[in-house]
Structures are given as structure tokens and as C-alpha cells.
Amino acid sequence: MAGRAKGIVAEGVVVGMRFILDTNILVAALITRGAPPDQLYEAWRDGRFTLLTSELQIEEIRRVTRREGIRFRIHPAEAGRLVNDLRRLATVVGNLPTVDASPDPYDNFLLAMAEAAQADILVTGDKRDLLALSRHQGTRILTARNALDLLRG
Asked: Average pLDDT in the 72-80 region?
């Protein structure tokens, strides 16, 4: 696949595409098997795109999966596997710039990741804040279903 243009679909793989999956997408992937967030998680594990993350996001996942309302829905081993997969298989983005573009300041680190890594797609379920932006610099902000449609070509 080397030498192919970024964004070209070849055999179900969007060559060179760099995705960020919001924490709400990653957690939803663990809760609801077969739903669009889970399909995206599995597409990444199948090598269909490059997943970008950061230490900030990994820590957020650890915090969220320990919350009372979430803990009973996700087995600790599943949450641990997700964190381990991210550390081992995803591209961990460092040196995040300061960003103040989201109405929710807790989402700015995702936009900072997008800037630092020049992400193509940020996938989120956050309709009020991130999806309302639709784009941040060169990064498109999509729902899980729209991102799946993009992957399917």
C-alpha cells in the first residue's frame, strides 16, 4: 500500500487516513457491540485506518470507565484491554498545542490532538459541542455512522 495517495479507498481500507475517536465513541464501543462505535473500533483493529490518541485521552478513558454509572456496564478487563490497545497499537500524540475552540473546554484536548497530528477525521457523539463545529482546521468532525460510511466508500 505504500505510495498510495491519502484518502484513496483500496480493498475497504482508507489508505493513510488518521482518525481520532472521542472517548464517548471508545466507551460506547465497549458497551454496545455491533453498533457504529464498535464497528469503528473493530475497523481500526483490522488496520483500516490509523488511530490517534494521547495520554490525556487514555487517562480520561481510565477515569470514565471507573465511574459508578459506567463501571457496571464495562468489565474492568475490557477497559484495561482498550487502554492497552491504545498504548500498543494507536499513535500516541504528544506536545499538544493549547486550543480554545470548543464550547466545552474539556473537549479542547481532542481538537489539540487533531491539530498536532493533522488528523483527517474526529469521530464523536457530542452533538452540542464538537459536531456543531463540523470542522477544526483541516479535520472533519463526524458521527460514528458518517465515519463508517466514509470507510465503506
From this structure: 93
Q: Give the CATH number of the domain where residue 145 resides.
A: 3.40.50.1010
* Mean pLDDT of all residues in 118-133: 96
Alpha-carbon span 59 to 36, nearest angstrom: 23
Average pLDDT over residues 121-132: 95
Q: Which of 151, 152, 150, 148 is nearest to 35 (CA)?
A: 148
pTM of the model: 0.89
Laid out side by side, the sheet with 135-136 consists of 91-92, 50-53, 18-21, 121-123, 139-142, 135-136
**Does a structural domain hold residue 48?**
yes
Beta bridge partners of 142: 123
